TrEMBL record:
GO terms for molecular function: D-amino-acid oxidase activity; FAD binding. Residues 4-307 form the FAD dependent oxidoreductase domain. This is D-amino-acid oxidase. Its cofactor is FAD. Belongs to the DAMOX/DASOX family. Keywords: FAD, Flavoprotein, Oxidoreductase, Plasmid. One of its GO terms (biological process) is D-amino acid metabolic process. It catalyses: a D-alpha-amino acid + O2 + H2O = a 2-oxocarboxylate + H2O2 + NH4(+). Its EC number is 1.4.3.3.
Length: 322
């Protein structure tokens, strides 16, 4: 019996991978089922390894490409690609983005065909092989599938003497993972029926790069800041202003959008912003997904399952480090 501690995207992905390989699993989380208490709830859900490679290390590109297939076996995945655009004065940023990544084609006249509701953009980069999902639906689907497989969920603290424990508590694991830090992210959920976008759109903005992800029925997730701060209490006026201003720059119709939700939370990250699997004090710790929760959770889960079931070491494994 394996005991997974934490029911965010890391914990549920690990439990799902173990259960899929025939292992007995139980999950402990005192907060109960997935919800707004966890940073996984507030994610964008972009499965975009080629875009993320623009400012990430090579493992994000390589391991992230496993995510689309893994998730489409477990939840609904939209295979619409990602569009990256920049205003006329920011076209040098678009060229820099192109130099730092791969897996795209340049679009100009086709841009209006891809997203007719974008205004004032004549050039872009289309990452056709990327995809996205609704994080809340993905969490619910993992949770329901695990229950159907007979996995027991305990809304309690995990006992200290658990055998075969796998700790996926995110930032709460700093009591053992002392080099873990929190990176603040702020986001908005808005409704704007007057705008129809078919895919995630990234705007290269001089102050705050923006992404907007369609959730259906005129609802969009708008995010997200990356702030080296551990204040998870509130969104700043500056962040809200810049997020909404960038959305308005994509389409003036967003000026009439209704703000449905404001989300603020802390992403767990190690110094190099790459996830780690550590075996310390008889427990396996899986953590540090940073801003790549849904993109790298499948690779993290596979690495944990390899280590837990067969003692196979992946590149993420970092043994007995205090």
């Amino acid at each position: 019996m394996f005991s997974v501690i934490g029911s965010g995207v890391a914990g549920l992905a690990v439990a799902s991978e173990l259960a899929a390989r025939g292992a007995e699993v139980q999950v402990f989380d005192p907060a109960g089922p997935p919800g707004p208490h966890g940073c996984s709830w507030w994610a964008g859900g972009m499965l975009a390894p080629w875009c993320e490679y623009e400012n990430a290390e090579e493992p994000v590109l390589r391991l992230g490409q496993q995510a689309i297939g893994w998730w489409q076996e477990r939840t609904t995945v939209a295979h619409c690609g990602t569009l990256v655009v920049a205003g006329r004065r920011d076209l040098p940023d678009l060229r820099r983005f192109a130099r730092r990544t791969e897996g795209f084609r340049e679009v100009d006249a086709e841009l209006a065909e891809l997203e007719p509701d974008l205004h004032g953009y004549s050039k872009g980069l289309f990452f056709e092989d990327e995809a996205h999902l609704n994080p809340r639906q993905a969490l619910a689907d993992l949770y329901a599938d695990l229950q159907a497989r007979g996995v027991a969920f305990h809304a309690t603290e995990a006992p200290e003497d658990l055998q075969n424990a796998i700790d996926c508590r995110g930032l709460s694991a700093r009591d053992t993972l002392h080099d873990l830090r929190g990176v603040k992210g702020e986001m908005l959920v808005i409704r704007c029926p007057d705008v129809t976008l078919s895919r995630p759109v990234r705007l290269l903005h001089p102050r705050i790069p923006l992404y907007i992800v369609p959730r259906g029925r005129g609802v969009y997730m708008l995010g997200a800041t990356m702030i080296e701060s551990e204040d998870r209490r509130r969104i700043t006026a500056r962040s809200m202003l810049e997020l909404l201003s960038a959305a308005y720059a994509l389409s003036p119709a967003f000026g009439e959008a209704e703000v449905l939700e404001i989300g603020v939370d802390l992403r767990p990250a190690f110094p190099d912003n790459l996830p780690r699997i550590r075996r310390t004090g008889g427990r396996i710790y899986a953590n540090g997904l940073y801003r790549h929760g849904y993109l790298l959770a499948p690779a993290l889960a596979r690495g944990v399952a390899d280590l837990a079931l067969s003692n196979l070491h992946t590149e993420m494994v970092d043994e007995d480090r205090d």
